[in-house]
Sequence to fold (434 residues):
Amino acid sequence: METDAVPVQESWIDQFIQEALHYPRAAIRGSRYRGDRWDSIEVPEDLLLHLNGNAIYNLRHPWLEWLHGQLEREHHVEDFAVIPFDLRMGNITRAAQRGVDPLGGIYAALVPGDEEPYKDDSTLIGSFAGTLLNHSFQTGVYVRQASLSNIFQNLEDELTLGVAAPQPAYDGLNATIRSRHPFRKILVLSYGEKPIKPDGSMETIETPRGPTDVLFQSAMHQRHLALCEMASLVTTTFFAFSDVYHLISGPVDVLAEEGRPVLPYITTSSRECTAKFGCKLSVLQAENLFHVDLHHHYDTFEVLYLTSQMRRFCSEWQLAVKALGSYEDCAVQFGPTADDYIAWHTSVGIRPSHYYVPKDKDLVGWRSMTHRHEAEPTDARHCSAYTQEEYKSINANITICSKIVEDAPGMETHESRKFFGERELSEYSHAKGS
Fold:
C-alpha cells in the first residue's frame, strides 16, 4: 500500500485476510480506477482496465512470479522502463490472455484454463487516484486510495443554482432536478414572450437529498447578462450558473475547504484549451477588460460565485465594456464570464486562492455540477465568432453519455458506458425512480 491508501472502514484487516486466503485464487487482486477523471474522455482500453498498484499480490502464484521476472528483464529497456509497473503488468497480462506470441504460450503453461489471475473484484481497496472527493462519500471499500489533498467537505448551505431558461427547452433540465445534488434553491430566469411560469411562482421538488425550492422569474435584461442578473436576485452566499443546454450532473457535490469552494481550471497552453471553442477568446476578453494576464481558463458553468463579489464585479464589467465599445458591436464576444470574474479579482489585488481552492483539471478528476447536452443556439450578432459551424462542431463533440444520461438503462448496453461510472448510473436510476 502507498501512503495515499487510507482505511475508511473497520475490519479492513479481516477483509484483507478474506480476499487473500479465501477468495478464488488470483495472482493480483485489486481495483480499477473508480473516479470521475475519465468520464468524458475516451480512454485507451489498457489504461481503463488495468489494476491500480495498491493491490493484493499472491507471491506464490506462478504468473506473478513470471511477471516479476519479466519486469526485471525490461528494467533497462527505455520504452518499458517509463511505463508504471501496474500498467505494464496489466498490459502484459491482457496481451497474454489474447494469445499474443510468445506470451500466450507462457500464460497457458502457468495459469489453469478455468482461472482468472488478474481480478478486479476487490472490496478491500478502491482506486480513486486524483479524483476530488467529498469526505463523506461512501466508497464501498475498506481502504480508499486517493490523495488526502483532494478530500473536501460538501458545501450545501447558502447555495443557489441559477438557470437561464428559454421556455421550450426547460423540460430536460427540470427532469434532472430530481437527481442527487446539493441545490436546495434554484432560480429559473425565463426568456421569451411566454414565461415558463408566472413571476414569483414557486414549486418544491423532492430529491434524494431533500426538497428543492424552484423559483421562477421573468428576465429583465438581455440573455448575455444572465449571470449578472442572477447575482442581483439570489439571496444565498454562493450561486452556480447554468442554462437549459446543460443538465445537472447528479449525483454531484459542491466541494469546499473551510468555506472556500474548489475552483477548477485548465491552463491556457493546454491542448484542451486550444481545442475548445471559446477558451482562448474568453481569456483574451478578460485580459482586455481588466488589463491583467491570465494563464488559466475558468469555465463559467463550473465556478461557484460569491454573490457579494459578483455584484461588485458586474458593475465594473459594464464600465469596462463601455470603455471598449459595446456588446452589440462585439467589443466583447461574450457576456460576463468566469474568466472575466477571476480577472477582475486579480485587477483589484485579490488572489483567487483567497476565496477558492484552485485545482488543475489536467491533474485531478473533476465532476462538474452540470454537463452540456446540447449546444446553445448561435449568436445573432454579425460579428460574433460563434457561428453555425461552431454550433455544429460543439454538438458533434458532446459525448453520447451526456445525451442518454436521462435514460440510464440505455447506458447498460451502450459501448460508451465506459465514459460514465457505475456509481453515477445506479444513482441516477435511483433518483429518477424516486
Q: What stands out?
A: The chain has two domains: 5-152, 155-398. The two ends are 39 Å apart (CA to CA).
